[in-house]
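Field notebook, page 139. I keep forgetting to write these up properly, so this time I am using the form the group agreed on. The chain and the ligand, alpha-D-glucopyranuronic acid, are recorded exactly as supplied. Prediction of the bound pose follows.
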Amino acid sequence: SSIQQTYEAEDAEAEGTIVDNKHPGFTGDGFRDYNPNVPGGYIEWTVNLPQEKDYYLVFRYAHAGGSERPAEVRVNGEKMEELPFPPTGDWATWNYQTIHAPLQEGENVIRLTATGAEGGGNIDHLRIQDHPEEGGPEE
Ligand code: GCU
């Protein structure tokens, strides 16, 4: 059987962000906007997995900025990688950035920290799944 869980950004812990809903197409009640547009803001999800294995961590986002808005992913405090978050072209056009990373059974803390000069894109949710379909690139 396959595992898939979705955690909304608006329900996560965060610093240097606001919750908004002014651009359509989000899931849940809205999205998080890294605001102000400076590096260092983060969104932090505590997720609960039924077993230890490698998962796809799929971040749904949108931004109509002119350049990449990179963000670093940490899993349980350990740096995984920095994702580029290229422009999606419109604030209401949502796309995905994915990493493949090992998670432990039970609670895991996933932190997404904006590292670029303009801060991060608008983040809708984090989906965790043990199969590569539905949005995430094949890795
Ligand atoms: C616009 C947009 C916001 C976005 C911001 C940004 O103001 O409406 O949703 O977060 O640009 O550049 O980050």
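OBSERVATIONS:
- Residues 27 and 57 are 17 Å apart (CA to CA).
- Residues 20, 23, 33, 37, 65, 91, 122 surround alpha-D-glucopyranuronic acid (CB under 6 Å).
FOLLOW-UP: compare against the apo run.
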